[in-house]
Structures are given as C-alpha cells and as structure tokens.
Specification:
The protein is an alpha/beta fold and 405 residues long. The protein folds into two domains: 239 residues, Alkaline Phosphatase, subunit A; 141 residues, no CATH class. The protein is 31% helix and 20% strand. It is built from 14 helices and 14 strands. Strands 10-9-11-1-12-13-2-14 form an eight-stranded mixed sheet, sandwiched between helices. Helix 5 crosses helix 10 and helix 12 runs antiparallel to helix 13. The two termini are 21 Å apart.
Length: 405
C-alpha cells in the first residue's frame, strides 16, 4: 500500500495562445520533472464534472474527493466561510465575498480592489454588525477574498448576488428569488449600503486614497448557501486524509470533510506562493495520513488575469518545486497532477475544456507521452470524469477493495 499525493494546479488547462506561439502554457513551459513523471506514468484527460459542464473550483474539488456535487453543493459561500475560520451554525446563510473598488456612481472599477494584500483584517473587523434581528459576521480571506455570514430567523439563500461578475457596470441591488428570500435581500442591501460608508471612512482606505491606490471600498457577494453535511472522508474512503490549501474555499471543503490541515504558514493563494514549502509539508504530512490534496492557486490567477506567459512561468515554478521535493519520493508515492478546471487566458474565465492529468507510481503502465499538455495526453490511457478520480487513486495505491467475488 502506498500513500497518495494529489496536486491540483488550479485552472491548469488552457487554449493555444498567440503570445506563446500558438501553444498552451503547458505546451510552452519547460517542465522536465512533470514531463518525466507523465512519461513514466499514465496520462489522459479529465472532465471535473462532465463533458460540456463548466466547473467551479468548489464543485470540482468536491467531486475529486468523491462527493457528488449535485447532491452536496449548496453554494460556495459556506465553504469560504468555513475555510476562513468562521464557525457556522444550523440555519446560517453564508456568501463568498470580495473587497472591490467602486466609484462614486456605484460602478465597479476593480472587482478585486487591486488584489489587496494588507489591511483586510482591519477592514473586515469594521463590518461585523447587526441589522434588524440578524447578526452579520465578516471575515477576510487571502488577498481580496472574504466570507459573509448571516445568522437569524427567517433567512434564506434564495436571493440574487450583488456581484455583477464584470467591471465598468453598476453594482445591482439584491432581489429575492422567492418569497423566502425577501428578508435576506432586504438585509443584504442594507449591509451593502452601511459597509460602503464604513469602508469609505476607514483608515486603510484613507491611506490608499493618499497614495492613489485602488480602495477596498465595497463588498461584492455571491454564491449564498447553507452549510451542507458531508460524509466524513475517512469513513467514506477508509483512509485518513489531509490537505494543504491557502485559499479558504478549498480549505473549507476539506475541513467540512474532516480532513487534517497541513498547510504551512506563510503560503499564499497567489503566484508568489511557496510551492516548495507546500510540497515539503505534504511529504511530511503523509507520514501521518494516507492521502493529501495540495491546491496551488497561481495558475488560475494567471488565467483570470489573461496572462498566458505568467501562467507558463508559474507552471515552471511548480515543476522546479516538484524536482526539488518529489523526485526522490516518486517511487514511494502515488503522485497525481491535474487541474480542477481549465481557465484559458484568452477567456479570463473557467471553461468546459477537459483538463490533462497524469498518475505516476512505481510499476504503473506507461503511455510514453513526452510532453505533458492538453494536446499530447489525448493519446494517453485515461478519459475520466471527476467522480472516477478517487477510485483510480485508491486502486493505484493498492487501497481499493475488490467488487465481487
């Protein structure tokens, strides 16, 4: 029996880019270690949910861990809230939130407030309040990300978002999607108005104005839901699981599944993250548990920024870390490498394009793929859906049970 390391390079998949000479970032990247593991393992493509379905990071991570997203997904907000450290109670309504920059006409100028990196803890503390009989809790995450939780009677997630999902448009009013959502919509609109005044007058934003920097002067929220009940990972799969993730969303999913947190201090959810530290923590953690998921966010950020060159360079950063940490461990582990979805730099958004994957372990069959990328792995062995992945990983590690006599 071997231990399993699942590395998810968030938003890994892409499309050919003129900036990269008609290649995808994976095709263009110099990545000898990734290519070696792929060449000496099995490769292919994976649809995180199903062909033609555009996956979110939340639904794909759920599915990869063996949970039916159609059954357990209630919205992204609860996972963000749990991952940020907020404690949820039955009936709480949680939303994923962004600090954003909005002008005097309520037009969104930057959905991520310049990817703010400091002061968000101070801003967040100022946004905890009570409206009517509802307690509102706000907690910062990594960079611009945050979580918003409502606790009170008569609340419902059946409301629209106030995040327009694009810039240079007005922040819309929240509207109820059913009669149940009327109170929640009213409270959220009041929260937005109050938070605008609080943030505008906050010391952090006064300093930003003086330096002509984007202000974090508005809160955009989306993905509201109630916390789901996930079966415990160890009970479900018969193995002990852990995770390494700087982003609240992934941490929240894993935490809800009862997996142990091995995330080292100082890592970020951006392209400047310490990938070496993450992989070293994973190797150390696998002495204690049987399975560890490592989420690496930088590839997704580069894709959302429309920067194919930056994405290529970050893939090379991952490859160097794999070379430094994992190549001496390659024969003692099952190492799987894939993405949770594609984020083509040409789209700056998720797409339904399948994602390349390899699984390497001692004694595995070989595809002989020389360069691990979206195009070449079409000649590989694997053609998976996300809900196949845990079964395949357990089988590769000799941890699966036989079906039948």
């Amino acid at each position: 029996m071997m231990k399993v390391l699942l590395i998810i390079a968030d938003g890994l998949g892409d499309r050919p880019s003129p900036v990269l000479g008609g290649k995808t970032p994976l095709e263009a990247a110099i990545k000898p270690n990734i290519d070696y593991l792929a060449k000496n393992g099995i490769t292919g493509l994976i649809d995180p949910i199903a062909p033609g379905i555009i996956p979110g990071s939340d639904t794909s991570h759920l599915t990869y861990l063996g949970y039916d997203a159609y059954k357990y997904y209630t919205g992204r907000g609860p996972f963000e809230a749990l991952g940020s450290g907020l404690k949820l109670e039955p009936g709480d309504i949680a939303f994923r939130a962004n600090f954003a920059t909005v002008d005097g006409n309520n037009i969104v100028r930057d959905r991520r407030a310049g990817r703010i990196r400091s002061g968000t803890d101070l801003l967040a503390k100022s946004l905890n309040m009570k409206i009517e009989d509802t307690d509102i809790f706000f907690k910062e995450g990594i960079e611009h990300r945050a979580a918003l939780v409502l606790r009170g009677e008569g609340l419902s997630p059946e409301v629209s978002d106030n995040d327009p999902h694009e810039e240079n448009v007005a922040v819309p009013k929240v509207v109820p999607l059913s009669k149940k959502g009327e109170k929640t919509a009213r409270i959220l609109n009041e929260f937005y108005d109050r938070s605008r005044k609080i943030l505008n007058e906050h010391e952090v934003n006064r300093e930003k104005r003086e330096k002509s920097m984007p202000e974090a002067n508005a809160i955009l929220f989306r993905g509201g839901g109630v916390v789901p009940e996930l079966p415990n990972f160890e009970i479900k799969h018969g193995i002990k699981g852990g995770y390494i993730a700087a982003v609240s969303l992934v941490a929240g999913i894993c935490r809800l599944a009862g997996m142990k947190n091995f995330t080292p201090s100082g890592v970020t959810g951006s392209t400047d993250t310490n990938v070496v530290a993450k992989l070293k923590a994973a190797v150390e953690g696998l002495k204690e548990v049987d399975f560890i998921l490592v989420n690496i966010k930088g590839t997704d950020i580069a894709g959302h920024d429309g920067n194919g060159m930056k994405k290529k360079e970050f893939i090379e950063k991952i490859d160097r870390a794999i070379g430094e940490v994992l190549m001496n461990e390659k024969d003692s582990l099952v190492i799987a490498f894939t993405g949770d979805h594609s984020t083509p730099a040409s789209l700056k958004e998720h797409s339904s394009d399948p994602v390349p994957i390899f699984i390497h372990y001692k004694g595995s069959r070989r595809d002989g793929i020389e360069n691990f990328n979206e195009m070449s792995v079409r000649g590989g062995t694997l053609r998976l859906r996300g809900n196949d992945l845990m079964n395949l990983l357990l089988s590769s590690a000799n941890m699966a049970e036989k079906f039948g006599a």
